[in-house]
Design brief:
The chain is an alpha+beta fold. The chain contains 3 helices and 4 strands, in the order E-H-E-E-H-E-H.
C-alpha cells in the first residue's frame, strides 16, 4: 500500500500542467520509504534532454517517470505499475 500525493499548487492548474508536459514534487509515501518524483511526457522530455545536453553536456533527473500525458490519471497508473515492483529503481527521499 502507498499514498500518492500531488503538489498543492496543482489544484486548479491541471490543464496548464498537462500542456507544459512536466510536474515536479509528486510524492509517493510507501511503508518502507518516501519517493519524490519528477514526471514528464515524452515530447517534453525529448525537448528537455536536447536542450540540457546541448547547453550542459548531460541530463540527469532522479526518480524520473515518463507518462503519455501529465495527468493525475496517467501518473496514478504509472505509480501503480511501480508499486508492483516495490518501487524498484527509485531512490528514497533523504530527510535533511
Amino acid at each position: 500500500m502507498y499514498d500518492l500525493q500531488f503538489p498543492d499548487y496543482l489544484a486548479g492548474y491541471e490543464f496548464e500542467t498537462e500542456a507544459k508536459g512536466y510536474l515536479v514534487g509528486v510524492r509517493v509515501v510507501a511503508p518502507e520509504a518516501t519517493y519524490e518524483l519528477t514526471v514528464y511526457d515524452v515530447a517534453r522530455l525529448e525537448e528537455e534532454v536536447a536542450e540540457e545536453v546541448q547547453s550542459d553536456g548531460s541530463f540527469a533527473v532522479a526518480n524520473l517517470v515518463v507518462v503519455p500525458r501529465v495527468t493525475r490519471v496517467d501518473i496514478a497508473r504509472a505509480v501503480e505499475r511501480l508499486s508492483r515492483s516495490d518501487f524498484a529503481g527509485l531512490m528514497p527521499r533523504v530527510e535533511a
